[in-house]
Amino acid sequence: MGASDGSTHARVPEAPHPLPLPVVDNHTHLDISRDGAGPVDVAAALDRAGAVGVDRVVQIGCDLPGARFTIEQVEIHRALLGGVAIHPNEAPRLAAAGQLTAAYEEIEALAAHPRVRVVGETGLDYYRTDAEGRPVQQDAFRWHIDLAKRLGRTLQIHDRDSHDDVLRILSEEGAPERTVMHCFSGDMAMARECVERGYYVSFAGTVTFKSARALRNALSVIPLHRLLVETDAPYLTPSPWRGSPNAPYLLPLTVRAMADVLGVDVPALCVAIDTNSEALYGPW
After folding, report:
1. Per the structure, how many domains does the chain have?
2. Average pLDDT along the chain
3. What single-letter DSSP state applies at residue 272?
4. Could you list the residue range(s) of the whole structural domain that residue 48 is in?
5. Domain holding 158: CATH number?
6. Contact 265, 258 (CB under 8 A)
7. What is the pLDDT of residues 105-138, one digit of tens each?
8. Going edge to edge, which strands form the sheet with 179-181?
9. Is residue 175 part of a domain?
10. pTM
11. Whether pLDDT at 145 is above 90
12. By the 8 A CB rule, do 207 and 4 touch?
């Protein structure tokens, strides 16, 4: 789950030109709406995405209501697979209320659903959680790593202002065979380390921002066989619609920006993203 990018945009984004080949939105939140909008019409959102070549989506529920929503929706829509977890910013709040153990039990039960292929997003977020809450975050991260390994699920990692500790804990615990750095925000050195460790690296609309030169440099060193793309909708809308609510149908803007950075044609990148997604999540 991302954060507001701090800008506003009055218009509803227009649909981009369709991609030449289908791709997967590796991470989106159809349970969340922004700017006072009502609940997302999931069927309409998936239809609009499919019309531009985004024909499969990984829906991430990272609190208990979102996880329950995810189970409901993956049972209805064949274009959806799911991921469930307790977000790192949720874990300290639940612990303070004495509810974290019960939350773990529910997440573990939901993660066993056959159309839930992801444990995540989990990880660390030192931007919103102060030092007092960080030990709980780290314990929660370790618990989710273990769950992903026990259930044979792909792990999706949230990392905000916590690069060193994320990599350290993954090393200490042993990362699952299939590990994804969701909404990558590190530098070139971190990108290279993730590739060396065998992780997949997913980029969101932030890679299109004018200010994100360091992120594009990091993208440039990721080989095609480790790349994914995502919206993190409704957050992190790609340029030129930054600030508007994001949605899966806007993913082609990020795909084309990534192809430019990598110096590859768009069809080749689409094939790579599709192949990687199937390797991580299996058939829809």
Report:
1. 1
2. 95
3. H
4. 23-281
5. 3.20.20.140
6. no
7. 999 999 999 999 999 999 999 998 888 999 999 9
8. 23-28, 54-61, 80-84, 116-125, 154-160, 179-181, 200-203, 227-229
9. yes
10. 0.94
11. yes
12. no
